[in-house]
């Protein structure tokens, strides 16, 4: 039996091994939406096993090797590439898997809709959360397995390719261009992305971190207007959360409308419909930027703790509102508490269930918990503990239990009250009262 990776994503991931590095060599033809790939995965066994599995959806595998040799057997079926090496996996032992594959990538169907590779009017994007990574490369698709990446992507001349991390090379090859990126900080599979489009790159001035907008040329003015305060957002979040965890930040704006923006490590993707200067647009820009700390650098080890991503990103919207001269976080909290009060009281924040993992109540209840914690222990202690939390788990995996432990131990004289607060907000479905705030 193959060990399940995460109970919220049945059939994805394998706990018997970790991938430590992905080396992806890809060739993409935009006109036919055809992808050819050669993926080399440097792995390490965690448990003894006679076989293991990778996730790969809808693409045809033509060749597999393990440490340069064809495996004893392999089978690719129903999104799983089952591999049996010539000798059993030994805990702690390293091994390398290389997979050659091709086809027409599409989204991975799931209970929350399709995720992963999406063909646009003229190009493609990857929106991988939560289970879309297998739509374009073979992987161990569980959030707790973070790895480094290299991307070498050939695409037609005239298109720009954007991937996670730093652009290390751009090499013309007749009618095609080879783009190379390196993501040196560990990353979960669902955060890996590829963006292919007719984009113009524009640097955004005034940020403490290099910041770039990638957008169709005709949208430049409205994109720059919508992102004009993003450098200020970055400065605010650096002050509140600690140093930005990566080398740079990129926003990709597609020439298509998108249902929702999507964060990926070191970059976020927005549709042209999201480029707005009102609060509805600005809160989304702040939300996705905050995910670079909460979700990308600090990634939940299991999807049931998704509030550690979305609650923080939602509360960051309110913090930005407060810092930028808009409504105080307390006013946002009171408004959303009233809305939740009239909603069904059947969601447990620490384990919302697979069908409800993206329910808006996870986002808002998570943000309300953080505000209640801030009011209870005071701004100085709250933000000090928050920066310690971010620093202690930088580029790692986190759980609700770890969060409770750090903030309970750091609560000082409010320890008992904080323990009660966590039990009420995280473990009980009934909405607790919101502590009164002067902010």
Q: Enumerate the strands of the largest sheet in spatial order, edge to edge or round the barrel.
A: 4-7-2-1-11-14-13
Overall SS class: alpha+beta
Cα-atom radius of gyration = 22 Å
- Separation of the first and last Cα atoms: 54 Å
Descriptive overview:
- This protein is α+β, with helices and mostly antiparallel strands and 439 residues long.
- Helices cover 26% and strands 31% of the residues.
- It is built from 9 helices and 22 strands.
- The strands form 5 sheets. A 7-stranded mixed sheet has the order 4-7-2-1-11-14-13, with no helix packed on it. Strands 8-9-10-15-12 form a 5-stranded antiparallel sheet, with no helix packed on it.
- A hairpin with a 2-residue loop joins strand 19 and strand 20 (267-270).
Short description:
With 439 residues, the protein is of the alpha+beta class. The protein has 9 helices and 22 strands. It starts with 16 loop residues before the first strand and ends in a 12-residue tail after the last helix.
């Amino acid at each position: 039996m193959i060990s399940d990776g995460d109970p919220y994503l049945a059939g994805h991931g394998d706990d018997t091994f970790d991938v430590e590095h992905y080396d992806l060599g890809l060739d993409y033809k935009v006109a036919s939406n055809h992808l050819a790939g050669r993926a080399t995965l440097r792995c390490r066994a965690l448990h003894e096993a006679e076989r293991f599995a990778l996730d790969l959806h809808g693409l045809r595998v033509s060749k597999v090797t393990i440490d340069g040799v064809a495996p004893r057997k392999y089978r690719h079926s129903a999104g799983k590439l089952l591999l049996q090496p010539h000798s059993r996996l030994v805990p702690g032992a390293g091994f390398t898997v290389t997979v050659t594959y091709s086809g027409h990538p599409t989204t991975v169907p799931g209970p929350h809709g399709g995720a992963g590779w999406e063909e646009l009017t003229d190009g493609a994007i990857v929106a991988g959360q939560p289970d879309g990574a297998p739509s374009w490369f073979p992987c161990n698709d569980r959030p707790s397995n973070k790895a480094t990446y290299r991307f070498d992507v050939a695409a037609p001349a005239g298109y720009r390719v954007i991937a996670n991390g730093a652009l290390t090379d751009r090499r013309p090859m007749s009618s095609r261009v080879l783009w190379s990126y390196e993501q040196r900080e560990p990353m979960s599979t669902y955060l890996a992305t590829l963006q292919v489009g007719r984009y113009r790159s524009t640097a955004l001035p005034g940020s403490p971190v290099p910041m770039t907008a990638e957008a169709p040329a005709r949208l430049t003015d409205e994109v720059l207007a919508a992102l004009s305060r993003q450098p200020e957002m970055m400065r605010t979040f650096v002050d509140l959360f600690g140093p930005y965890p990566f080398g740079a930040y990129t926003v990709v704006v597609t020439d298509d409308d998108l249902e929702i923006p999507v964060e990926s490590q070191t970059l976020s993707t927005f549709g042209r419909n999201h480029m707005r200067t009102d609060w509805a647009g600005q809160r989304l820009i702040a939300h996705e930027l905050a995910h670079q700390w909460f979700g990308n650098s600090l990634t939940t080890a299991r999807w049931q703790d998704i509030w550690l991503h979305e609650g923080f990103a939602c509360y960051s919207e309110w913090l930005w509102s407060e810092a930028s001269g808009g409504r105080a976080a307390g006013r946002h909290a009171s408004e959303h508490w009233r809305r939740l009060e009239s909603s069904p009281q059947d969601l447990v924040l620490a384990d919302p269930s697979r069908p409800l993992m993206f329910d808006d109540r996870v986002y808002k209840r998570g943000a309300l918990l953080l505000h209640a914690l801030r009011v209870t222990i005071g701004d100085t202690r709250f933000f000090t503990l928050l920066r310690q939390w971010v620093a202690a788990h930088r580029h790692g995996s986190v759980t609700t239990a770890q969060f409770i432990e750090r903030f309970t131990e750091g609560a000082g004289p409010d320890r008992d009250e904080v323990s009660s607060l966590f039990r009420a907000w995280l473990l009980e479905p009934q909405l607790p009262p919101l502590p009164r705030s002067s902010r």
